[in-house]
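Changelog-adjacent note: as of this version, every example in the card shows the full chain rather than a window. The one below runs 54 residues end to end.
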Amino acid sequence: LWGDHGQSALETAHICLINATGLGTEILKSLVLPGIGAFTIVDGKKITQEDIGA
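Full-length structure tokens:
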């Protein structure tokens, strides 16, 4: 889909996800799989037992 230059750009990219909803995390996963170099997640909510499937 993209050449060496495009892959290099992906590998050096840094994505910031603000408010990690279910949709946002799915989008982030789709961006990470092709090789995004780094990502930061910013979310003020506390994780509950329900969130981790316990």
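Structural remarks: The chain has one domain: 4-42.
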